[in-house]
C-alpha cells in the first residue's frame, strides 16, 4: 500500500516536530519521503491534526496519501498527487501543487490556495476539491462522483470520460470540455474553447459566456451552432438530444446563437 516505506527509519516518529525534522533532513534528497510521512501521519501519529512547513523543501509528492480522518495543514508548495486515494479527512495546501490533486479519492476535502499543474480529481469517486487559482489540463478525467470547484481558469480536456459528479469553473476553460463524457455536470461561468462535448454520450455541460467568433459542430444533435454579433438580448440556448440524456446550454449576454440544421 505504502511503497518504499520499509526503506525508511526510524519507524516511531510520533510528534509533529519529529516528522517536520525528518522532512527537513531527508525530504531534500528522497522523492518518496512524502509517502513515508503519509504513512507516519495515518498509522503512527496519534493526533488528528498536523501542520508541516514545506517552504524550504522541494515539491514533495504524495503528501496526504490515503488520508482517512486526519487534518493536514501544509504551508508552502507541494508536489504531485496530494491526497491521492483519500477516503476522508481534510487537507489544505497554502501554496501551489503539482499534478494529480485528489486523484482516485473516495472522500474527504482538499483545498489548494494556489494553483495546480493539472490532472486534478482523476478518477475520483467522492469528496470535494477546491482550487483557488488556475489549473492546468485534464481536470476530472474518468471522474465518477464528488465535486471539483475551480475559482479561476482551467486548461484543456475538462471532464474527459467523466461519468458522474460535478465540476464548477468560475473562469474560462480550454478546448475539448466534456469530451467522451458519459454523465455528471460541468458548469463554466466564463469562456470555453473548441470541441465542446465531442462524442458526448451523457451528462450536462453549462457554459455562460463564449466571447469569440466560432463554429461548433455537434454530430450527436446533427446541427450547427454559430455565434453571431446581432441583437442586444441575452439568450440561453439549450440543445436537447432525443437519443442521449445530455444537454449543452449557453447563456450569451448581448449575443444570439443561430441554429442551422444541415439539409
Beta-sheet strand percentage? Answer: 25-35%
State the distance separating the first and last CA atoms.
58 Å
Overall tally of structural domains: 1
- Taking pLDDT < 50 over at least 5 consecutive residues as the criterion, the unreliable ranges are 212-246, 250-263
Q: What structural category characterises the helix and strand content?
A: mainly beta
Say how many strands there are.
17
Count of alpha/pi helices: 2
Largest sheet entry:
11 strands, mixed
Rg from Cα: 21 Å
The secondary-structure element order is HHEEEEEEEEEEEEEEEEE
Average pLDDT for all residues: 81
Shape descriptor: elongated
Widest beta sheet: strand line-up:
1-2-3-5-7-9-10-11-12-16-15
Protein model, in words:
Helices cover 9% and strands 32% of the residues. Mean pLDDT is 81; it is low at 212-246 and 250-263. With 263 residues, it is mostly beta strands. The chain starts with 15 loop residues before the first helix and ends with a strand. The chain has two helices and 17 strands. It has helices spanning 16-26, 33-44; strands spanning 49-53, 71-75, 87-94, 97-99, 107-112, 116-118, 128-131, 135-137, 147-150, 166-169, 185-188, 202-207, 215-218, 223-228, 235-240, 245-252, 256-260. It is elongated, with a radius of gyration of 21 Å. The chain has one domain (5-210).
Keywords:
single chain; 263 residues; eleven-stranded mixed beta sheet; three-stranded parallel beta sheet; 2 helices; 17 strands; disordered C terminus
